[in-house]
Amino acid sequence: MEEAQAELASLAAQLEKANVAYHREDAPDLSDAEYDALKARNLAIEQAFPELKLADSPSDRVGAAPSDAFGKIRHVQRMMSLENAFDAEGIVEFAARVGKYLGHSDRIAFTAEPKIDGLSLSLRYEDGVLMQAATRGDGEVGENVLANARTISDIPHQIANAPQVLEVRGEVYMSHADFADLNRRQAERGGKTFANPRNAAAGSLRQLDPAITASRPLRFFAYAWGEVSEPLADTQFGVVERFREMGFQVNPLTRRFEDIQALLGHYAEIEQGRATLGYDIDGVVYKVDDLAMQRRLGFRSATPRWAIAHKFPAELAWTRLLEIDIQVGRTGALSPVARLQPVTVGGVVVQNATLHNEDYIAGRDSKGETIRDGKDIRVGDWVQVYRAGDVIPKIADVDIGKRPDDSAAYVFPTHCPECGSEALRLEGDAVRRCSGGLVCPAQAVERLKHFVSRNAFDIDGLGAKQVEAFYRDGWIKNPADIFDLQATYGQGPRQVKNREGWGAKSAEKLFAGIEAKRQIPLNRLIFALGIRHVGETSAQLLARHYGTWDTFEAVMTKAIPDEGAEWQDLIAIDGVGAVMAKSLVSTFQNKAERAAIDALVAHLQVQDVHAPVQKDSPVAGKSVVFTGTLEKMSRAEAKARAEALGAKVVGSVSAKTDLVVAGPGAGSKAKQAEALGVEMIDEDAWIALIGDA
């Protein structure tokens, strides 16, 4: 929910730390359930409100940067992570999304396999000989652990009848019995003992001395692939069978199903037998079986659309609510956070929980319907803490019987706790927002953090901590001040190099990083401005549509909501609605906001951005509108295909439209196309037009 945006920076920091601890240091400080909860909460907010997505969102990242202790290997095909679901409803929704995307009403077959809790490994064979072994790393670059991988008995050194190039991917793990024996031996010799089998497996595989790895009882399950010089099979299940024939260990619980209920039944069987497997799993992975369908479904930024991990259930615990704090986010949202008497939930100590908004505290949902049987939440209450993958810890229930006699209903603040400005709740908004704008220090700091975040300006040497410190000391108040930093604090007694924790080299690095970002692509600048409802994807859409800063700025300045050519052009962009458009226009036409933007742009050379054009495509450079019901492909697939061929997909018909693809039920857009003389074709003609382009 949008009111949770104040959590995003904290979530990103926690997840970055956890990724390094888990993937690089092999010493996680969070349990798998806690990590899943944090990451899925982050993703849930972004899916519901994409405009809130941080530039360096954990949703777009896989693993952590590889250690400098090993050689680096760049994966030819990125090693992705998986979307998570935590109940049967989530799996049913996943299957429905797959069917809708593919335009399928028939049953779609899926495979199901245990999700091994180990370390991902990619093995590259050339002419059947093992030539390379790489950890996941950050998904794009991993660590070279070939010598260590060769010591694992489950990994063949040579494969007969293999394609010329074959990358086999899977999981390195350690059995429960071997883990217990390793820890016993380690303790006897006074060595390091491990917290769990996953840590032991990861630490063993990433030893600098292969002899140590060889002494550790590591195993390997194969279940996926990267680059291959020729197809292995037509189905996911068929590829796994090929792996088995090649001599790899594949999980014996892998099955193929054509019915979702059968799929869920297999999940229940695996969950019930989980303790008897002899190795750790944390869920079941489902994949579309047909590889042609997998190719059509494709990928999101970090996850495939054709696979999902069905994680094991959430956990509950009871504790005392000690205090309710209010955090203020970048757009002024007041987000309540429960401070709890520390309680261990599933092996993780929980001290904080989200309370979402004032309605949630009062026992109502966003539609005004009662939740928790209408029980409100008060300081001093005995509360049930709920940890699941789709949320960070939250309050699931209240024990009224243990409520103190002197308890009082919580009164949500009507003024910002940071600046004292009135906190308003507008009609249709689920959250109360500080009206202070740039006057509010909390909003100003969060905006600056967003400005320097990874997919915005990403200034080397200037992160969230440095922004907070510089803002606190009055050195930077708005983005333009960053580009004056060297001139103002590069010399004299008050200069960057004299600050605590700084020196000449770090100051030089900072100034060089700032100078390097005086040239910035248009999409990054738009995103960095932190305009409400404008996320990274939206910024890219806007940049590709307008091309230059001058054009974009002129339209935002002249546009009048609900009237005029500039407004119509803006909302015609497929993916830009009236809410986002009004937010853009109001920002550029607000005097204070505009002054800050103009001051910033004066320091910059904004680079033009244009949509890529596939020159040999029959629709390259054309403006295309889809209307009515498409029967042979989903709207999402049609749009993705058109854009991949260099077309510009827009949401409304105008004299600038080149082509309208009309399915059954096409209404006003088809009539408008006729009136304007715009070429109009049906879905079959569209498919024939693009062909195999």
CATH topology of the largest domain: D-amino Acid Aminotransferase, Chain A, domain 1
Spatial extent as radius of gyration: 27 Å
Described by strand count, sense and barrel closure, the largest sheet is: 5 strands, mixed
State the share of residues found in helices, binned by percent. 25-40%
Shape: globular
Taking strands numbered 1, 2, ... along the chain, how are they ordered across the largest sheet? 2-11-10-3-9
Total DSSP helices: 25
The name of the CATH superfamily of the largest domain reads DNA ligase/mRNA capping enzyme
Assign the CATH class of the largest domain.
Answer: Alpha Beta
What's the average pLDDT? 86
Number of domain modules: 6
Total strands: 24
CATH architecture of the largest domain: 2-Layer Sandwich
Molecular structure report:
With 693 residues, the protein is an alpha+beta fold. The protein folds into six domains: 2-60, Helix hairpin bin (Helix Hairpins); 72-311, DNA ligase/mRNA capping enzyme (D-amino Acid Aminotransferase, Chain A, domain 1, 2-Layer Sandwich); 315-402, OB fold (Dihydrolipoamide Acetyltransferase, E2P), CATH 2.40.50.140; 452-482 and 484-517, 5' to 3' exonuclease, C-terminal subdomain (DNA polymerase, domain 1), CATH 1.10.150; 521-607, Orthogonal Bundle (DNA polymerase, domain 1), CATH 1.10.150.20; 623-690, BRCT domain (Rossmann fold), CATH 3.40.50. It has 25 helices and 24 strands. The protein has a five-stranded mixed sheet with strand order 2-11-10-3-9, sandwiched between helices. Helix 1 packs antiparallel against helix 2, helix 17 (522-528) crosses helix 18 (536-546) and helix 19 (549-558) packs across helix 21 (578-588). The longest helix has 20 residues, at 5-24. It is globular.
